[in-house]
Specification:
- The two termini are 28 Å apart.
- This protein is 47% helix and 21% strand.
- Helix 1 (2-11) crosses helix 9 (314-340).
- Strand 6 (154-158) and strand 7 form a beta hairpin.
- It contains 28 helices and 33 strands.
- GO terms for molecular function: transmembrane transporter activity.
- Residues 1-32 form the signal peptide.
- It is found in: Cell membrane.
């Protein structure tokens, strides 16, 4: 019997091969689904951790210590306690010991943390030696500039070191402020200080004998944490450790626990969504196989009738008949399972073992094949139960009766119910509907709507085709008449039209959804990165960074200096290069980026420059004396400080070397350092240098070098000078006389007034986004763009969002803001933005200009991370499933066309002998089912539009529901018509190949 089955399969190769291929596709997809779930859940965990900021990967514990608990080993003991309680070796645990205090200077105090952090010297650049003994500290560059203190100087601090000041052993600069090491410094523990803390040894903190101090321990998971530990394990360890550590006095913040839960929930989204798509695919597969077998059985009707006439037993007939479909299906199932073996991904969510995943794959393939064989048995049932007379007919019977119409009616009603459910869910308030899950009816709405539309169209196609055929015969258009009558009389047309329409609809929906998801990820990545490539760098100051980018790229084609301050929502850019380098969007302040740059950067006066390796200051002290410092900026952005010493008495020239100004320097500011003291060795031998009383005022008349300088008329121009706007800066009154600029301190005794060159606008132009626009509509708005400096701001435009820093933020020009602060300092995050045209050795070129690179990122890399999160992963599977549905529908179409090829060829051959032209015969041979495919394509396109827009449930592409930018359009004509065109090509090829090549007499070729 098995030999008979094989011979029957060989005699009908085309349908058998098609059934084999359809089963390979469906069984392979079913077997691959568990492997896909395992692979994508692991990739999702890794990608989410990679994209998460360090704040989200941290567990921070805080404990207040009283005076008795302050010991040198407090940090080490706390780190040990936290490590043992959590019990995850993959977490990096570090401790910070901090005291709230203040620097004391000239009777004034400035709040500043005194802190010790495990191994801090390995994560900073030091100008000096790492503190190692009690009383030694390291201060950051901003504090050094603020208090004019450098390595080797002394610094009074309260509590504990008012009478015996600290020794500043080093000035430090954090290389990567956003590294995992500095996690705790970004959490709001006790407030965020304006200046970075004073770093020291634990013995120094103990020696300060503070009344109270704070112990902070942070456990940070690396970006590869979830590649080694399951999210639920991380969550459970943190949950169990919290009460234990709480009993020991720790207050906890657990963003890492939230991240682990979010990752697990996102994994569950994949676990739930992929099987839904798989079920849709399997149902579609079984329907397609049912149609293919049902119409393939037409070729076996005569064989079954002859077997019945010869008295063959019913079980034998069933075996012979079903075997012709079952054998190709079994072979296809094995082939599909074998094709899925290379996709083995091992364990996935919740530590599911590789063997469990493999068993699920085998089970899915088995269910697919069994369902296919059951669909074939149902399809063969009518032929097996039909009488011999009906089986021996050459023309298949038409379907009629109330059941046929009832099934269609139920399908239409169900589709309308699903459409209403989907529409009502999509129309809900997104805030109220976020936590609600869409129902199965809503999820099935696109497919059922497409099936129902196909059924309705098929009901219309038959009568319409019959009428067209009659009219074509009356007018003598035989080709049109044959094609129309083919559509009107073939029983396969209605169900096939519905199947093809559903396939096209779901494929168009999947393609457009995938397009929207991909664009969402790319747009978010572009917003969070800002340019094609971004380098995170460390530089001595902002001016050095600006000078380096302009020296490497003098024409401004591919590099731009940027200072990002996410904590205060400020992005400072070199506006001269904004149009060339940034990935600009209209939401950032307007579609015309050149106009935005012009608003950010108003015309500025020429800087005051002086050239020479030695500078001469002409100044006058009106009563007493004071030390005068000049701050200049070299051509490469480096800070040059010239100490002209004690200025006393009448108008005098003071000459000092100025290293770095031989090629020219820009004058930034003058600073008057309080009470004057003569240098060591001045005055009578053996006596300390005499002190001069603080001056009532100092007059500056000229500053010259060997190659040019600044003369008295410039100093006498009041418009060229201003006082600083920085926080805590000492006020002074400025006035001019024909002899120059007069600086009068408000408090001549305890003050170090500063005067800056005014080469900036009165207010800093800024593009305001979100609530910042309302905030800066105040009478006198000020912006803290850089640490320790408040700049007066004027809103120059509105935006929806600002790159990197988000929706409630400000966009400003870096050079203008730098000129207004006058401190030559740094920023929260120094960056270099580059286009793809940047040179490959950019990092080395930056290093030559004293700009060190410690990290980088690209839009493509970040977009790839977002593409591995839950919604894109499930949508990719939906896209693959929809593509397979098109192939399955095409396979069913091919089987039906191939089955009808022989009788159709015989009919055309007879007509050719009666005078039908070859051209008309070819049209009749190919035209019928091409029209069916064309109708299904149009119907699928029509159904895809409401399915993707009106009925689409609100879906956040990102698990964290990021919404800084408006969501991209749900439907674009390009991808929609491209999907329809791809389906059209597949259907046309199948029809042409399955129809065969007609002979000259009109029959089929062999």
């Amino acid at each position: 019997m098995f030999g008979l089955i094989l011979r029957a399969i060989a005699s009908r190769r085309a349908p058998s091969i098609t059934l084999f291929l359809l089963t390979v596709l469906s069984a392979g997809a079913a077997a691959a689904a568990p492997q896909y779930i395992a692979m994508t859940t692991r990739e999702l965990a890794a990608a989410t951790a990679e994209a998460a900021p360090v704040d989200a990967r941290t567990v921070t514990l805080r404990r207040d210590l009283d005076q008795r608990e302050v010991r040198p080993d407090s940090v080490e003991n706390a780190v040990r306690e936290v490590s043992d309680a959590i019990g995850l070796p993959e977490l990096a645990v570090r401790g910070t010991f901090q005291v709230n205090g203040s620097i004391v200077e000239n009777g004034r105090s400035t709040n500043l943390l005194l802190a010790y952090r495990t191994g801090f010297c390995d994560h900073v650049v030091l100008a000096g030696a790492c503190p190692s003994r009690p009383g030694e500290v390291a201060i950051d560059e901003a504090t050094s500039r603020r208090f004019k203190v450098k390595a080797g100087d002394r610094l009074a601090y309260a509590p504990g070191f008012e009478k015996e000041p600290f020794t500043v052993s080093a000035v430090y600069r954090i290389t990567d402020p956003f590294s995992d090491y500095w996690a705790a410094s970004r959490l709001p523990i006790g407030g965020t200080p304006v200046l970075a803390p004073v770093l020291t040894t634990p013995e120094t903190i103990v020696a300060a004998n503070p009344q109270s101090s704070t112990l902070v321990v942070d456990a940070v998971g690396g970006r590869d944490l979830f590649a080694h530990v399951a999210p639920l394990t991380v969550r459970d360890r943190i949950v169990r450790a919290n009460p234990v550590l709480g009993q020991r006095g720790y207050e906890s913040q657990t963003p890492l626990r939230v991240l682990a839960v979010n990752i697990y929930n996102s994994q569950l989204d994949i676990v739930y969504a992929v099987p839904i798509s798989l079920v849709e695919l399997l149902a579609f597969c079984w329907i397609a196989l049912f149609l293919a077998v049902r119409h393939g059985a037409l070729e076996r009707h005569r064989d079954i009738g002859l077997l019945k006439l010869r008295g063959t037993a019913q079980p034998r007939i069933l075996t012979l008949t079903l075997g012709q479909s079952g054998v190709p299906m079994l072979a296809g199932g094995l082939a599909g399972l074998a094709a899925a073996i290379p996709l083995r991904a091992g364990g996935g969510i919740a530590n599911a073992s590789a063997s469990t995943t493999d068993l699920l794959s085998v089970g899915a393939a088995v269910v697919t094949v069994l369902g296919a064989i059951l669909a074939a048995a149902i399809a063969e049932r009518r032929a097996l139960a039909a009488p011999v007379a009906l089986l021996m007919r050459a023309v298949p019977p038409r379907r009629s009766g109330w059941r046929y119409g009832a099934v269609d009616g139920v399908l239409v009603i169900l589709a309308l119910a699903c459409a209403y459910e989907a529409w009502s869910y999509a129309s809900r308030d997104p805030v109220q509907g976020v936590a609600q899950q869409s129902t199965w009816l809503a999820l099935l709405a696109p497919a059922l709507l497409a099936f129902a539309l196909g059924v309705v169209l098929a009901r219309l196609v038959g009568p319409a085709a019959a009428e067209v055929g009659r009219r074509a015969l009356r007018t003598g258009r035989l080709g049109v008449a044959f094609t129309a009558t083919e559509l009107a009389r073939r029983p396969a047309v209605p169900r096939l039209t519905a199947l093809l329409t559903a396939a096209v609809t779901l494929f168009c929906v999947a393609v457009t959804t995938s397009d929207t998801t991909a664009r969402s990820g790319e747009e978010r990545a572009a917003t969070e990165i800002g340019a094609d490539r971004v380098l995170r760098v460390s530089a001595p100051n902002r001016a050095t960074l600006l000078a380096a980018t302009r020296a490497i790229d003098p024409q401004g084609r591919f590099l731009m200096a940027v200072v990002s301050s996410p904590r205060v929502g400020v992005l400072a850019v070199d506006a001269t290069r904004l149009a060339a380098v940034a990935r600009w969007r209209g939401e950032y302040g307007g579609t015309d980026v050149a106009a935005v740059a012009a608003r950010l950067r108003p015309p500025l006066p020429e800087p005051l420059t002086v050239t020479g390796s030695e500078l001469t200051l002409t100044a006058t002290a009106l009563r007493g004396g004071a030390t005068v410092l000049a701050i200049l900026q070299a051509a490469d952005g480096a800070e040059v400080e010239v100490d002209f010493g004690l200025v006393t008495g009448g108008r005098t020239d003071y000459r000092q070397p100025a290293q770095g100004c031989a090629a020219g320097c820009r004058l930034v500011s003058f600073e008057i350092l309080g009470v004057g003291t003569l240098p060591e060795g001045a005055g009578p031998p053996g006596e300390p240098p005499p002190e001069y009383p603080a001056p009532d005022a100092v007059r500056f008349s000229a500053l010259r070098g060997t190659g040019g300088g600044i003369d008295t008329p410039v100093f006498a121009d009041r418009a060229r000078w201003r006082t600083p706007n920085g926080l805590g800066q000492v006020a002074a009154a400025l006035s001019v006389t024909p002899e120059g600029l007069v600086v009068t301190p408000d408090n001549p005794v305890n003050s170090d007034p500063m005067v800056l060159v005014d080469e900036s606008p009165e207010r800093l132009p800024a593009i305001a986004a979100g609530v910042k626009g309302a905030e800066f509509s105040a009478a006198d708005p000020h912006l803290q763009a850089f640490p320790g400096n408040a700049i007066p701001v004027a809103v120059a435009g509105a935006a929806h969002a600002v790159p990197i820093v988000g929706r409630d933020a400000m966009l400003i020009d870096l050079e203008t803001a730098d000129a207004m602060t006058g401190d030559l300092g740094g920023g929260e995050s120094l960056q270099v933005w580059a286009t793809d045209a940047a040179p490959a050795d950019l990092v080395d070129r930056l290093a030559e200009h004293h700009v060190e690179t410690y990290g980088s990122g690209t839009i493509a890399e970040l977009a790839d991370r977002y593409a591995r999160q839950a919604p894109p992963s499930t949508i990719r599977f939906q896209l693959v499933a929809a593509a397979l549905m098109v192939l399955l529908a095409a396979g069913a179409l091919g089987v039906i066309v191939a089955v009808e090829r022989r009788p159709r060829g015989a009919e055309l051959a007879a007509l050719r002998q009666q005078g039908l032209t070859a051209r008309t015969a070819r049209r009749a041979m190919f035209g019928g089912y091409l029209v069916v495919a064309a109708v299904a394509l149009v119907a699928g396109l029509v159904a895809a539009v409401p399915a993707r827009t009106i009925l689409a449930a609100p879906l956040s592409v990102f698990p964290d529901r990021w919404d800084v930018l408006p969501a991209p359009a749900a439907l674009r004509p390009g991808p929609l018509f491209l999907a329809a065109a791809a389906a059209a090509v597949v259907f046309a090829l199948v029809v042409l190949l399955a129809s065969g090549r007609p002979r000259r007499d009109g029959g089929e070729s062999t």
